[in-house]
Structures are given as structure tokens and as C-alpha cells.
């Protein structure tokens, strides 16, 4: 069932299970009616597909709150071209076949204009949505996001084509000279690809590296093998293409055994508060990077994000969650697409208009993105953060460290 924030804003209480935020008075002017699926004189309907069960379900809950906050802010400001944004959700269980089924149902029965994909299985519906020219915005966690031009994202992480020297230049600046890359050998699709991206980037900066496979949660014998490799090669840098918890375990063991480690670079999210409390100063210097502004940065854009989260997604008590910020940015891309689509938007005008945007920055939350020139390519600039010396918080090292694309 589609949920409308306009019904909730005027209510005495705000239910935490509500899917949409935004406030519209009964006497608000309506836009001109358009004969377009999902568009009326009063609203534009979207669909949000994400795993509400199965792999990643708990991870993506804050993301939905971020969507609420951004759409809520847009609706409170009068909507887009006079129309309020509504959305309904579908659970794809993080399965490609289910993703296709629920996306198809949203289009053919739900009568939505476009879709927000916040799933690890968006490849399931990608070809169907591309063939029908449906606008899609979301997270590029699969290679398919580099293939279809109806799909928009703010960063391709390591799914993008080519390589950049940014990571190598950063390691060099931090004093690293030789590196060992530890990757998840059980993830045959993504982790080895990330390891290769790191290898290329390091080499471009003159840093020799080698790779060793293991588990995302490395066993003691795998950590021992890594230590032996680092000692034999004289490596002073470790790059992890695994989760932050696994890398924290590795770094703690290496330092406990007296191995000097100058640089620790992670391809995962920054350590959580719980991880900092568990490992403390033993993971000092553990560095992560994002293509968006870190929440630790004091800036007008981050302040605006927090204000909107408190106002339109109060059910999420802690807005300092990466996936909430990501959901906010994904929703902002959808809003920008509607703005570019014109007073009487069509799906094609959304796609053409947004693809022509060359200076998108999500209100200052991102480094500038050109939706045509940067399509499918690894970003050149990132924000780097690291665990401080005491191991009790994350500090911003550089909010906009840039390199260049290679090849």
C-alpha cells in the first residue's frame, strides 16, 4: 500500500513505520495533469526496492530513513514542479529473481514513474527496466550499473571500468612503500576485482604490492600467512579488500606480533562504534574512503542532512549512519532527475535531462559528478578518514583527495 506523508504531517502522531515523508495542505495548487505512468496533477509515484529480509536487510533499514528525509524535505518545499513525491516499497530478499518480479510488478501494476534500487541484486531487473526506459537510481554494487544509461548512481566504487591512481598516491603520501593486499577469496566476483584495482593504483604511484586470499573473517592461520608474506617482502602497508571487522582483527594481530605497519587502507566502510570500542588504539590509523562527504566533517551540507533527518525521519534515532546518508543521496538524485524532466515529466525526459547534468553534487554532499562523462567510471576523488591515535573516534584526513584515471 502506498504511504503518503501528507496524511501524516497533519496527524497528531507520526508512525515510525510510515514509508514516506512530506507535507501537503489540502488547498495546495496542483500541477497540470500529464498522461504519464505514475504522474498526476498532485503527485509522482516511485518504487523503492530493497532487501527487507535476507542478505543485507538490517543494513538497508537506515537507507530507507534517508530516502524519507530527502523526499520529505522536497515535499515540504512544495514538491517538484508542484507535485509531491510518494513511494511504495518492495522486498526483493536480496535475490535477483525476486528483484525482477517485484520491479516488474511495480511498473505494470503499481503504476510507478521510476524506481530506486537499494539492493545487492538489482541486476535481476536491470534489463527489463532498461528495455522499457524506466528511470532507475540507486547503489552501484554490481557491474550492471555501468551498462545501462537509464541507471543513475553517485559512485561506482570498484564496479567501474578502468582504474585510478588515487589510492596509490594516498598510500605514498602516508609513507607506505610496499604493500600486501588481503582479499576475500570466497567472493569470486567482487573481492579479487577490488584487489586488482588496488594493485593497479599502487603500481601507478610506484608502490610494489602482492595479493593474498583468505576469508572475510580471517582465521589465525590466514593471518599468520599474511604476516609471513609481509615480513618476507618488507611490506609496511596492508590494503584490505574485506570487511572492516576482519581487517581490524588482522591489524591487531600484526601489531601485537611487532610488525611495523605504516598504512592500513580498507575498501570497506569505516569501523563502527562497537568496533572502535572493541579494538581501540590497536587499529589506530585504519583508513577508509568514500565518494561522499564523511559524516565526521562539519559542513553546511552535512548540517542540512542532519536537520532533514531529524525533521522527516525521526524514527532513526542515530542519523550518523552511512547507509542513511547514502539513501538521502540516492533520493536526491531522483529529485534532481524530476527537476530536469520539466513541468510534465516523461521517463525519457528524466533520463535525458539527468544524463545531461555535468555538475551534480547532491547539495554539497558529493564531489562534482558529470552523469555523462563519469558514467561507468571509477571516481578520481575521495574523502579519506581514519581511526585516531586513541582509537575512540574517526577523523577526517582529507575530504577531497584526488588522483587521475589510468589508461
Distance between the termini: 49 Å
Arithmetic mean pLDDT: 89
The tally of helices reads: 12
- Helix proportion: 25-40%
What does this entry show, briefly?
The protein is an alpha/beta fold and 407 residues long. The protein has helices spanning 5-9, 57-76, 96-108, 123-131, 166-173, 191-204, 220-233, 244-256, 273-279, 300-312, 322-341, 347-355, and strands at residues 43-50, 84-91, 114-117, 136-138, 151-152, 163-164, 178-184, 208-214, 237-241, 263-266, 286-290, 381-387, 394-402, 405-406. Helix 11 crosses helix 12 (347-355).
Please describe what this structure looks like:
The longest helix is centred in the N-terminal third of the chain and has 20 residues, at 57-76. The protein has a seven-stranded mixed sheet, with helices on both faces. It has twelve helices and 14 strands. By secondary structure, it is α/β, with parallel strands linked by helices.
List keywords for this structure.
407 residues, alpha/beta, seven-stranded mixed sheet, five-stranded parallel sheet, 12 helices, 14 strands, 36% helix, disordered N terminus
Task: Give the secondary structure arrangement, pairings included.
Blueprint: H1 5-9, E1 43-50, H2 57-76, E2 84-91, H3 96-108, E3 114-117, H4 123-131, E4 136-138, E5 151-152, E6 163-164, H5 166-173, E7 178-184, H6 191-204, E8 208-214, H7 220-233, E9 237-241, H8 244-256, E10 263-266, H9 273-279, E11 286-290, H10 300-312, H11 322-341, H12 347-355, E12 381-387, E13 394-402, E14 405-406
Parallel strand pairs: 1-2, 1-3, 3-4, 4-5, 7-8, 7-9, 9-10, 10-11
Antiparallel strand pairs: 6-14, 11-12, 12-13
Amino acid at each position: 500500500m502506498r504511504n503518503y506523508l501528507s496524511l501524516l504531517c497533519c496527524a497528531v502522531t507520526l508512525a515510525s513505520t510510515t514509508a514516506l515523508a512530506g507535507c501537503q495542505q489540502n488547498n495546495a495548487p496542483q500541477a497540470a495533469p500529464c498522461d504519464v505512468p505514475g504522474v498526476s496533477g498532485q503527485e509522482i509515484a516511485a518504487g523503492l526496492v530493497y532487501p527487507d529480509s535476507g542478505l543485507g536487510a538490517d543494513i538497508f533499514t537506515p537507507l530507507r530513513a534517508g530516502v524519507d528525509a530527502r523526499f520529505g524535505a522536497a515535499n515540504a518545499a512544495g514538491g517538484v514542479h508542484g507535485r509531491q513525491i510518494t513511494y511504495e516499497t518492495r522486498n526483493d530478499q536480496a535475490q535477483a529473481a525476486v528483484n525482477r518480479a517485484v520491479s516488474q510488478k511495480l511498473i505494470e501494476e503499481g503504476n510507478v514513474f521510476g524506481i530506486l534500487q537499494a539492493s545487492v541484486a538489482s541486476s535481476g531487473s536491470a534489463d527489463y527496466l532498461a528495455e522499457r526506459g524506466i528511470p532507475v537510481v540507486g547503489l552501484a554494487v554490481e557491474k550492471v550499473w555501468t551498462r545501462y544509461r537509464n541507471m543513475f548512481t553517485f559512485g561506482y566504487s570498484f564496479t567501474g571500468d578502468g582504474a585510478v591512481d588515487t589510492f596509490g598516491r594516498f598510500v605514498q603520501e602516508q609513507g607506505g612503500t610496499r604493500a600486501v593486499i588481503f582479499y576475500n577469496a570466497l567472493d569470486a566476483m567482487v573481492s579479487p576485482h577490488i584487489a586488482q584495482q588496488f594493485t593497479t593504483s599502487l603500481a601507478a604511484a610506484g608502490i610494489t604490492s602482492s595479493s593474498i586470499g583468505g576469508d572475510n573473517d580471517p582465521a589465525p592461520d590466514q593471518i599468520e600467512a599474511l604476516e609471513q608474506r609481509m615480513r618476507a617482502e618488507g611490506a609496511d602497508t596492508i590494503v584490505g579488500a574485506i570487511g572492516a571487522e576482519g581487517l581490524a582483527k588482522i591489524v591487531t594481530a600484526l601489531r601485537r606480533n611487532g610488525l611495523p605497519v605504516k598504512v592500513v587502507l580498507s575498501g570497506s566502510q569505516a569501523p563502527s562504534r562497537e568496533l572502535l570500542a572493541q579494538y581501540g588504539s590497536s587499529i589506530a590509523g585504519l583508513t577508509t574512503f568514500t565518494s561522499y562527504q564523511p559524516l565526521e566533517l562539519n559542513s553546511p551540507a552535512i548540517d542540512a542532512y542532519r536537520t532533514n533527518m531529524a525533521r522527516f525521519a525521526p524514527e532513526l534515532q542515530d542519523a550518523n549512519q552511512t547507509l542513511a546518508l547514502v539513501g538521502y543521496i540516492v533520493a536526491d538524485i531522483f529529485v534532481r532527475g524530476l527537476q530536469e524532466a520539466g513541468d510534465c515529466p516523461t521517463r525519457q525526459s528524466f533520463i535525458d535531462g539527468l544524463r545531461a547534468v555535468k555538475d551534480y553534487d547532491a547539495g554539497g554532499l558529493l564531489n562534482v559528478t558529470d552523469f555523462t562523462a563519469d558514467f561507468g567510471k571509477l571516481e578520481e576523488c575521495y574523502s579519506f578518514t581514519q581511526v585516531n591515535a586513541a582509537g575512540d573516534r574517526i577523523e577526517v584526513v582529507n575530504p577531497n583527495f584526488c588522483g587521475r584515471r589510468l589508461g
